[in-house]
Write a structure and sequence with these properties.
Layout: H1 2-27, H2 33-67, H3 69-93, H4 113-144, H5 146-175, H6 178-188, H7 191-203, H8 209-238, H9 241-260
């Protein structure tokens, strides 16, 4: 039971970091773009490394143990790309003008009140839809391997911070209300713990080595897609190209060292 509470708590932290992004946006006049660029690149490095080096092969080990080497490896690869396809479809269904992961500079856009309010509300909804599978992935990871989940939670939390900024800035400039801006940003992050609850009540009763392997491989695919489609492009947009790459490499190195400590 303690593992369930820990997994849910970690997922809750990741999701509610959108509220932290809102606080940062409302308390500072200008975003430190270089720091944001490095942080997003760092998050991408953590998530890519742990997905490809650790999560993917744990899924493979679990599946090959039950299905044999060839079939288990095949199911792992297929599940990995199903995870990518799932998150890509969710991303595609969200119109680009309301998609927080399409490149927009919210601080430079025209602040016509009605358009900004609509943009902020739809951005909050888009983030909520998009973060749902992240919550599911984080919960399953934390439940099975807490040592892997903690750096993933940190990575997701870092990348959720600019999402909170993306929601709060247009709502604040359109309404003049910091309270409304924070509430919308805070609520948009709740979809991650909701994803955890779905994982608990739907997946846990049927969990076995095969289900675990398939879900873990899908988690790896989701994490890789988020890193390549969201984190790195946004990191490059906010700063110099090399800053995001330096952050990426630093994230990989930190993740590698943290995993070696538990070998």
């Amino acid at each position: 039971m303690e593992n369930y509470f820990l997994a849910f708590f970690l997922t809750l932290i990741a999701g509610l970091s959108t509220g932290l992004g809102s606080i940062i946006a409302l308390l500072t006049k200008n975003t430190n773009k270089k720091f944001l660029s490095i942080s997003l690149g760092f998050s991408a490095g953590v998530m890519i490394y742990v997905s490809m080096i650790e999560i993917f092969f744990k899924a493979k080990d679990s599946l090959t143990l039950q299905l044999g080497e060839k079939k288990g490896y095949l199911i792992t690869v297929v599940s990995f790309f199903i995870g990518i396809l799932l998150i890509a479809i969710i991303d595609k269904l969200i119109p680009s003008e309301e998609n927080p992961h399409e490149i927009h500079n919210k601080e430079l856009e025209n602040n016509k009140s009605k358009n900004l309010a609509r943009m902020g509300i739809f951005t909050a909804l888009a983030i909520a839809i998009h973060n749902f599978p992240e919550g599911l992935a984080t919960f399953v990871s934390a439940l099975q391997e807490p040592r892997i989940a903690i750096p993933i939670v940190v990575a997701i939390a870092i990348h959720n911070i600019p999402e909170g900024i993306a929601v709060s800035v247009p709502i604040y400039y359109s309404t003049g209300s910091k309270k409304k801006a924070f509430i919308y940003s805070f609520l948009s992050g709740l979809s991650e713990p909701i994803g955890a609850i779905v994982g608990l009540f739907i997946l846990m009763p049927i969990m076995n080595d095969i289900v675990f392997g398939v879900i873990f491989a899908m988690v790896a695919g989701i994490m890789v897609f988020i890193s390549l489609d969201e984190l790195l492009p946004t990191a490059r947009e906010y700063g110099e190209h090399h800053l995001s790459i330096y952050g990426l490499i630093a994230g990989m190195m930190v993740m590698a060292v943290s995993l070696l400590l538990f070998v």
